[in-house]
Amino acid sequence: MTDTTSTMAPIRTAAAIPIAPGRTPWKHEAVGFVLGFAVLALLPLVFGDTYARHILIMAFIYAIVASNWDLSLGYGGVFNFGHLALFGIGVYAYSLLTKLAGLDPWIALFASGIVATLAAILVTIPILRLKGIYIILVTFGFAQLVMQVILSQSDITGGTQGIVRIPGLYWLDHNMVRDAKFAYFYIALALLVASTLFLRVFVRSRAGASIVALRDNEEYAISRGVSIVRQRMLTLAASAFFTGVAGAFYAAYQRNASIDVFGMSLATIILSMVLLGGTSTIYGAIIASFVLTIFAEWMADFGAWRPMITAVLIIGVMLAYPSGLAGMIKAAWGVVAGRIKRPA
Amino acid sequence: MSALAEILFGGLFQGSLYAMMAVGLALVWTTIGVFNFSHGVFMMLGAYIAWQLVELGLPAAVAFPVAVVVMAGVGWILQASVVRPLIGRPNIVLVVVITTLAAGSLIENGALTIWGPRSKQIPALIDGNAIIGGVGVSLHQIAIIVITPLILAALWMFLNRTRLGLALRAVAQNEDASHLVGLNVTALYGLAFAIAASLAGLAGIFMGGYRFMSPVMGSDPLLKALIVVVFGGISSISGPIFAAYLIGFFEAACSYYFGLYWTPALLFGVLILTLMVRPEGIFASRSRGLA
């Protein structure tokens, strides 16, 4: 912090990171970002029925959770297995705040994000000095601990029964129930846009670069003055806010909360989205969320075979393409771009 | 008196099951350096295979060993299909978590499709009940308490006294050097998985003898085994064994004094505290290797 220019303009320091080979210039990314989400915003014109919109809303929620998980897992290199607990905390925080405390749903939505952030900071304390497998075990333990606490406080949280009739979100006088999920679709999309924008700006910032430096060479990064304690806490806290908000939105949308959100099956699905998409990309996790959610719905007729086919698919992609779908797309793009740049 | 007997008995019994599970996890971790999240599914599959063999008319004394041997094969196949191809990848720890989770889901849903959701039970090792120290216990549970330490002692003997066991420990200590002296490291990886899977399968058979089986029966013991290896230190075999019994006693005492609801929360609280003070586990030395 001796450099005066960096303290004068802290926001612009992002531009000070040299462009590495293969790094997409931010202008290209911005164009792709706007185009991609514009296409998503036009989808309700094509899909008019409630069911298709429901699938898309669920894909948006999963995409938020998975891409935020990618921040701590992929960029931070922290084997955080308690990410779904942050989602669950969002679900229960919203439910309790609106139903017991009678808070306005919109305020509760953002308050849930803050509650999840605080929980993330709390869970960071025991893992500050740990590495690899031990982080997996502690964060896994944290998720179980949260679930057990919710179960044991059944007179407030409903225990295994869960909470029903949670107040939903509202928009002026708009009827949220009879618009074929029109409003919920755009709220979910807006949350995904905000979350993705936040994540991409974060990982391109100086703080994001220092987190990646810690992941890639911890000793060197520390010797260059990067604080592992502060950056690890920052990573988990940053990945928690939108995860908590997504949980709150999920509760508002489903109108009920249950401890299933802490279960292994949901955690496995979302983890596969992160890894299938390719870690440290953010976009990969989002793409994989769409692919897996739609794939799971498409196979709804297969019954018990569905989870088995999904499992085989996940194993196949992990064995063939360790860098995930993002790696596949990048490789395909490399081939296409190479042909365009080199005219015969 | 009966309170103490109950805690003692409950602790020994639960500890035996946890030890059988945790040893397999620790064995795979020390040799290959990956965490097998389908370990709980091995337990379930072992119980179901034993049930199927008994159902086909085999006597339990034949069916149980056969099921354990089949499980060794399953462990080998799993290792060869979803772990071995990934060795050498930079993010192997993470990728193996997801491939073993997926393989576990595959086996679990396969069991559900083949055997259906209806609960089943396999014959107990010994029928009948006894009263010891004012507590009513089944002879099946007594048998488990006696047999488990014998099996673990046999495993210890294998790892420390036989050439094959020493080779396994050598791979755990230094993989490159093991390659250099001509050990077949790939086969030893398979062996570690095979032993782990058969121990888990045996634990499943034990459990299926006193409780109804279901395709998800392995998830709770897996969770407890995770606590045990963290608590005892994952890089050894003896650490998890001691920790398994300690956790067993702790669990029995907690559910006696605080009730069933609070026991898991207390367990995880202890786990997190342990890791904050001694991240390598309470019994572990700071070096990596099998002991």
UniProtKB/TrEMBL annotation, chain A:
<feature type="transmembrane region" description="Helical">
    <location>
        <begin position="265"/>
        <end position="296"/>
    </location>
</feature>
<feature type="transmembrane region" description="Helical">
    <location>
        <begin position="73"/>
        <end position="94"/>
    </location>
</feature>
<feature type="transmembrane region" description="Helical">
    <location>
        <begin position="183"/>
        <end position="203"/>
    </location>
</feature>
<keyword id="KW-0812">Transmembrane</keyword>
<dbReference type="GO" id="GO:0015658">
    <property type="term" value="F:branched-chain amino acid transmembrane transporter activity"/>
</dbReference>
<feature type="transmembrane region" description="Helical">
    <location>
        <begin position="106"/>
        <end position="125"/>
    </location>
</feature>
<feature type="transmembrane region" description="Helical">
    <location>
        <begin position="308"/>
        <end position="329"/>
    </location>
</feature>
<feature type="transmembrane region" description="Helical">
    <location>
        <begin position="233"/>
        <end position="253"/>
    </location>
</feature>
<keyword id="KW-0472">Membrane</keyword>
<dbReference type="Pfam" id="PF02653">
    <property type="entry name" value="BPD_transp_2"/>
</dbReference>
<feature type="transmembrane region" description="Helical">
    <location>
        <begin position="132"/>
        <end position="151"/>
    </location>
</feature>
<dbReference type="GO" id="GO:0005886">
    <property type="term" value="C:plasma membrane"/>
</dbReference>
<protein>
    <submittedName>
        <fullName>Branched-chain amino acid ABC transporter permease</fullName>
    </submittedName>
</protein>
<keyword id="KW-1003">Cell membrane</keyword>
<keyword id="KW-1133">Transmembrane helix</keyword>
<dbReference type="InterPro" id="IPR001851">
    <property type="entry name" value="ABC_transp_permease"/>
</dbReference>
<feature type="transmembrane region" description="Helical">
    <location>
        <begin position="30"/>
        <end position="52"/>
    </location>
</feature>
<dbReference type="InterPro" id="IPR043428">
    <property type="entry name" value="LivM-like"/>
</dbReference>
From TrEMBL, chain B:
<feature type="transmembrane region" description="Helical">
    <location>
        <begin position="92"/>
        <end position="116"/>
    </location>
</feature>
<feature type="transmembrane region" description="Helical">
    <location>
        <begin position="256"/>
        <end position="277"/>
    </location>
</feature>
<feature type="transmembrane region" description="Helical">
    <location>
        <begin position="222"/>
        <end position="250"/>
    </location>
</feature>
<keyword id="KW-0812">Transmembrane</keyword>
<keyword id="KW-0813">Transport</keyword>
<feature type="transmembrane region" description="Helical">
    <location>
        <begin position="187"/>
        <end position="210"/>
    </location>
</feature>
<dbReference type="InterPro" id="IPR001851">
    <property type="entry name" value="ABC_transp_permease"/>
</dbReference>
<protein>
    <submittedName>
        <fullName>Branched-chain amino acid ABC transporter permease</fullName>
    </submittedName>
</protein>
<keyword id="KW-0472">Membrane</keyword>
<dbReference type="Pfam" id="PF02653">
    <property type="entry name" value="BPD_transp_2"/>
</dbReference>
<feature type="transmembrane region" description="Helical">
    <location>
        <begin position="137"/>
        <end position="159"/>
    </location>
</feature>
<comment type="similarity">
    <text>Belongs to the binding-protein-dependent transport system permease family. LivHM subfamily.</text>
</comment>
<keyword id="KW-1003">Cell membrane</keyword>
<dbReference type="GO" id="GO:0006865">
    <property type="term" value="P:amino acid transport"/>
</dbReference>
<feature type="transmembrane region" description="Helical">
    <location>
        <begin position="7"/>
        <end position="29"/>
    </location>
</feature>
<keyword id="KW-0029">Amino-acid transport</keyword>
<dbReference type="GO" id="GO:0005886">
    <property type="term" value="C:plasma membrane"/>
</dbReference>
<dbReference type="GO" id="GO:0022857">
    <property type="term" value="F:transmembrane transporter activity"/>
</dbReference>
<feature type="transmembrane region" description="Helical">
    <location>
        <begin position="61"/>
        <end position="80"/>
    </location>
</feature>
<keyword id="KW-1133">Transmembrane helix</keyword>
<dbReference type="InterPro" id="IPR052157">
    <property type="entry name" value="BCAA_transport_permease"/>
</dbReference>
